Amino acid sequence: MELHQLEYFCTLARIKHFTNASKAIAVSQPALSRSIAKLETELGVQLFDRSEKQLELTAEGRKFLTYVEKGLRQLELGRSLISTDSPEKGSIRLSFIQSLGSYFVPQLLCAFREQYPHISISLKQDTPASLGQSLQEGKVDLCLCSAMISAEHVGWIYLCSEELYLTVPKNHPFAAKSQINLQETASEPFIVLESTFTLRLLSDQFFELAGISPDIVFEGADIFSVAGLVKAGLGIALLPKIPALLSPDITFLPISFPVCQRAIGIAWNTTTPLTPSAAIFQRFILNRYTAAD
Fold this sequence. Notes:
Elements: H1 3-15, H2 18-24, H3 29-43, E1 48-49, E2 56-57, H4 59-82, E3 91-97, H5 104-115, E4 120-126, H6 128-136, E5 142-145, E6 154-169, E7 180-181, E8 189-193, H7 198-210, E9 215-220, H8 223-231, E10 237-240, E11 250-253, E12 255-257, E13 261-269, H9 276-292
Parallel strand pairs: 3-4, 3-5, 7-12, 8-9
Antiparallel strand pairs: 1-2, 5-13, 6-10, 6-11, 6-13
Helix pairs in contact: 1-2, 1-3, 1-4, 2-3
């Protein structure tokens, strides 16, 4: 079993097409086919189901892929740790939740690049449900998220808190208030995020603390859709007051009770050492928010 066979296998597993995979790794299709066939012979199992137009991994192939990806990541990490290149010329794979992508992440990366202009950063915007899995599978080095990820072997450190506001249309009776108790909204139609989002889970907790059962008229897949529907007068919502949501047609009301905030933190896989460049980024962001306190 040779290293290039494993690399070919991972590429084919991702692309699921011999011709396209062979182009991606710059080898001929027959050479790729022979390599995969040899690997299957050595393992004594069939890795791919070739009965359909699009290749699919067999059950054995899926199990094997998990370990191969982990092994290749460890090799890459080993290379980076013994490399003579400066860690300030490396790369970072960073994931983040959608609602941080319009202000928090850009501001952070601009500040980071001023100090470390030669570290490249690849970004992945992920759903809350996939954040922990991406870290566990080694697809990203670090993750910026709004709550502690409940996944095995994932660490999380608090960075800062962000207030949530009652967001109402400008012509809503509540818009004239300077602040509001969430209990006052018991009879109002609410627009919320889908149940997989951490902001929705937080909102449900705040509703429970206020002792109300909101009339939910729509569940959205992103905060921008939620804000748009509030703007259209279809309901009210609990949202962070971020620049991308500000509009003269929407009023953000501070909530007097309960205290409505979400925590923002940075997460990583605790079973795999960070690459030198990722460690630099982690220290940078921790120092940045420690200093802010």
